[in-house]
Design a protein that fits this description.
The complex is a heterodimer of chains A (215) and B (635). In chain A, 18% of the residues lie in helices and 37% in strands. Chain A has 2 domains: 108 residues, Alpha-Beta Plaits (2-Layer Sandwich); 94 residues, no CATH class. Chain A is an alpha+beta fold and 215 residues long. Chain B is an alpha/beta fold and 635 residues long. Among the domains of chain B are: 222 residues, Cobalamin-binding domain (Rossmann fold, 3-Layer(aba) Sandwich); 142 residues, Transcription Regulator spoIIAA, CATH 3.30.750.210. The longest helix of chain B has 22 residues. The N and C termini of chain B lie far apart (67 Å). The chains are: A alpha+beta (215), B alpha/beta (635). At the A-B interface, helix 1 of A face helix 1 and helix 10 of B.
């Protein structure tokens, strides 16, 4: 991806409200269209079927929101990031909304691998003081069942807190090279382990993505 | 005494709080959540209209009628329009369990809370879905059972040209183009509701509008009486029209080809900007309903189209635009339009597409203008395998046209080509069926020769065939369909006649084509069959995995309707068909003349290239409107 002739702009955006229900593929299409509507001077790949040079951060499952999601867009000429942000905001819907834009090095690691730690906040309808964490969770991928050891992924938490709005649980997951544990799968497993119903989960949001573990 | 009149309201209720928890349990929730780019919620209106596509969001959202009518209604003072679709089966089941009614996308309001709902009838296999929509919405299925505060249910679209199989389910069926007719009809309902008129009075007033058919105001005659009197319908009151003339949007050519569009989150069937560049087609293929009902031919100008495409791309962010119409390469300025778009869109990664290729080398050179480096497959529709039968159907295309197109396409770098044919066209013999095999094999030989030595291994030709469905308002409306068993025999004959391994044959299920023919040709008695089939579980009939033939068979038996007779009987051109009271502007006399010419193998020209053929559409201000003379640079 490193092309010294291109300018690489990192955009932070929120996937919130009911648009948390979008899939990663739907998010990528929607963002590409916002970039086109914003009239940005995006670079286009050479070759058989030319397309926009854009790269997305790690995916969120359907139903999980994010307040600091990331994509990188490669531009053919230098632009003022503040102007880009303005243009993108006016081309975006409220719940899929860019909040920051900055130029970064074309050689910086890809957004999808630069931030292996994701911190999530689960909103619960019932008060819990401590959430039990199962040792393993069973996930199904392409009809194959696989058992994941939670400790391999769970870097921090879950910590329970009472917020102004209700009850929240925070935890941090680390993405591994050979796979990840989905935050919704983990929280539902924890709820079950704690004898709570899945309906107690009101919402799940990625609140931060970081390069290193931050307590 | 009279039931309470419904008061006009400014706000719609929302069922979002009930829907939201269900969205976690179903596939692709993004179809039901609104908030797409371009979605409009008009607040300053006291009359609410919901436009419904009777199938799922991904099929319905790209539909042109839905977009046009929502825009037209929203552009009218006092009226607001929203969209609704039939949910996928997983959500329908949950909604029934939870007692959640069908809702609009924008306000998430129950359909029953709207003043009027419009349901487009895009093809013959959507009828059971219309009932699914009404039932899920909690709106009585029959117009006759609706109370004063139920919404007015309005139908329209291609199937309105034979409205009878849908008649009991609709208060009004709108025939023809809706740009002006739909807001006008809604304004009548709004004005009269304000004045306190009851439903019956409003319907009688609506029936006076050109193009609006109110089935409940007419008695349905028996066959003998209909043939003797020259019409199947008899007005119940004085002053009702006995012939419903379709509406034409006369401002089409001048109107902007860009109009606001909703950009879906989920992947839709035609996930791109659609720009309608011309309306109508006068090629005169005798089986083709679209070619009859959308006349006259009206072209938007090159300037209008180019500006609209660029504006539409900028406003939607799409990376593909399709120049839509029944025959886009017939546009008199198509070469100029494509060249200008190519120049304007260079380096943006935007693709321009044309929905179908005209069957000659000009068509291929137009396809080449927009193909860039990526050349997938080309699709051509010779429709019949022999020149004799192509003359019968007035497909004015010769073998040389096809081979010229193939030579040009494979020399230009295409490697795959799909050929569309129909099985069971009137007068078809086994020789015509074998002719399809012969034509395809010779097309393959030409493709192989034109492709050049290094590409020959990848040359592919495929045949796709569908069973002929006789359509209302066409010269072949009197012709019966062949039975499903006979259709399969002919398809087998075709398959066995093909000696080349590189040619694949695909065909549509003749059983669904049979139901299409019943719906296409049936009278009002077929409505009870639709309802019976739906009660037996038929819905999503156009989806192979949902099609339930037995439900249709059992419902026909119960109602004493002979579906074979309905689909397969061939009549003399003097026979009054069940839609003779609906007029597309093309006269029944012209259709009858065309049917006779078909028998004689006499072809007729396209009036936009040559002389008038006397179809009867042009009168008064209604005439073909071309942006430039056709045939000057091609044809």
């Amino acid at each position: 991806m490193a092309d010294p002739l291109l300018f690489r702009l990192r955009v932070t955006y929120g996937k919130t409200g009911r648009l948390a229900l979008l899939s990663h593929l739907e998010i990528t299409h929607a963002l590409e269209r916002a970039v086109r509507r914003a009239g940005l001077p995006f670079a286009v790949t050479q070759g058989f079927s030319p397309h926009m040079r854009i790269a997305f951060g790690s995916a969120l499952p359907v139903g999980v929101g994010g307040v600091a999601e990331i994509f990188d867009i490669f531009l053919a000429r230098n632009v003022n990031p503040a102007d880009v942000l303005d243009a993108l905001q006016s081309a975006s819907v409220e719940e899929l909304y860019p909040t920051a834009a900055k130029l970064i090095s074309p050689r910086a690691p890809a957004a999808s691998v630069a931030f292996p730690y994701s911190t999530y906040e689960a909103e619960l309808s019932v008060r819990v003081t401590a959430l039990a964490v199962p040792r393993t969770v069973t996930v199904r991928r392409k009809k194959k069942e696989k058992e994941l050891i939670v400790a391999d992924f769970l870097a921090d938490g879950p910590t329970c807190e009472t917020t102004g709005a209700g009850y929240a649980v925070r935890f941090t997951l680390q993405a591994k090279e050979d796979g990840s544990l989905r935050p919704d799968v983990l929280i539902n497993a924890c709820l079950a382990e704690s004898g709570l119903d899945e309906t107690a989960l009101m919402g799940l949001t990625r609140v931060a993505q970081t390069a290193r573990l931050v307590h | 005494m009279a039931a309470q009149k419904k008061a006009l309201s400014t706000a719609l209720p929302s069922v979002w709080n009930k829907l939201e928890p269900l969205l976690r349990r179903i596939e692709r929730p993004s179809r039901y959540i609104d908030h797409e780019w371009g979605s409009v919620r008009k607040s300053d209106a006291d009359f609410h209209f919901c436009m419904v596509y009777p199938d799922t969001y991904e099929l319905g959202q790209p539909n042109q009628a839905l977009r046009i009518l929502v825009n037209a209604v929203n552009a009218t003072e006092g009226l607001a329009a929203e969209r609704a679709f039939l949910p996928a089966v997983d959500l329908i089941e949950l909604m029934r369990e939870e007692g959640l009614p069908l809702f609009s996308v924008e306000s998430c309001a129950p359909l029953s809370s709207f003043d009027a709902i419009g349901i487009t009838l895009p093809h013959e296999l959507a009828a059971t879905n219309v009932l699914e929509v009404l039932d899920l919405a909690g709106i009585p299925l029959h117009a006759s059972e609706r109370a004063e505060d139920d919404p007015f249910v309005i139908g329209g679209g291609p199937c309105a040209y034979n409205p009878e199989p849908y008649a009991p389910f609709f208060d009004v069926i709108s025939v023809g183009e809706g740009e002006e007719a739909t807001p006008e009809l809604l304004c009548v309902i709004r004005r009269m509701r304000r004045a306190g008129a009851n439903r019956q009075k409003i319907l009688r007033e609506a029936a006076k509008l050109t193009g609006s058919y109110v089935p409940s105001l007419y008695r349905w005659r028996c066959e003998g009486e209909a043939q003797e009197r020259g019409s199947w319908i008899e007005p119940l009151y004085e002053g009702l029209p006995t012939r419903i003339e379709k509406r034409i949007f006369e401002g089409f050519a001048e109107s902007s080809a860009w109009e606001p569009a909703v950009v879906p989150f989920t992947e839709a069937v035609h996930d791109r900007l659609n720009v309608e560049i011309l309306r109508g087609c006068a090629r005169g293929c005798r089986f083709c309903q679209a070619g009859m009902i959308y006349r006259p031919v009206r072209e938007r100008s090159a300037d209008n189209i180019v500006n609209s495409v660029l504006r539409g791309l900028a406003e939607t962010g799409y990376d593909e635009v399709s120049l839509t119409s029944l025959s886009s390469t017939d546009h008199s300025q198509i070469a100029e339009i494509l060249s200008r778009l190519n120049a304007a869109l260079a380096g943006t990664g935007v693709r321009v597409s044309i929905p179908s290729q005209r069957l000659d080398s000009f068509g291929v050179s137009m396809a080449e203008l927009v193909a860039g480096q990526k050349k997938g497959g080309l699709t051509f529709a010779p429709e019949a395998g022999t020149q004799r039968l192509r003359d019968v159907i007035n497909k004015n295309v010769t073998e040389d046209d096809l081979f010229g197109a193939i030579d040009a396409a494979f020399a230009a770098g295409w490697r795959r080509c799909k050929l569309y044919f129909m099985i069971g066209l009137p007068t078809e013999t086994d020789e015509d069926v074998k002719g399809i095999a012969s034509l395809a094999q010779r097309a393959y030989d030409r493709a192989w020769a034109a492709a050049g030595p290094e590409a020959r291994g990848s040359v592919k030709v495929s045949i796709s065939c569908a069973v002929f469905v006789p359509k209302a308002q066409t010269p072949f409306q009197w012709d019966g369909q062949i039975g499903p068993e006979e259709a399969l025999r002919r398809v087998n004959l075709l398959s066995h006649s093909i000696k080349y391994k590189a040619i694949d044959v695909h065909w549509h299920d003749p059983k669904t084509s049979f139901v299409e023919a019943v719906m296409s040709r049936g009278g009002r008695e077929v409505a009870a069959v639709v309802e019976g089939a739906w009660r037996r579980g038929a819905r999503f009939d156009a989806w192979t995995e949902h099609f339930n033939e037995q439900a249709w068979r059992d419902a026909s038996a119960e109602q004493g309707v002979d579906p074979e007779a309905c689909a397969q009987t061939t009549y003399d051109v003097g026979y009054i068909m069940p839609w003779s009271h609906i007029s597309s502007g093309v006269s029944q006399a012209f259709l009858a003349r065309e049917r006779k010419r078909a028998e004689e193998g006499v072809t007729m020209p396209d009036c936009t290239f040559e002389r008038c053929t006397g179809c009867g559409v042009c009168k008064g201000d209604v005439a073909n409107m071309l942006a430039a003379p056709r045939g000057a640079n091609h044809g």
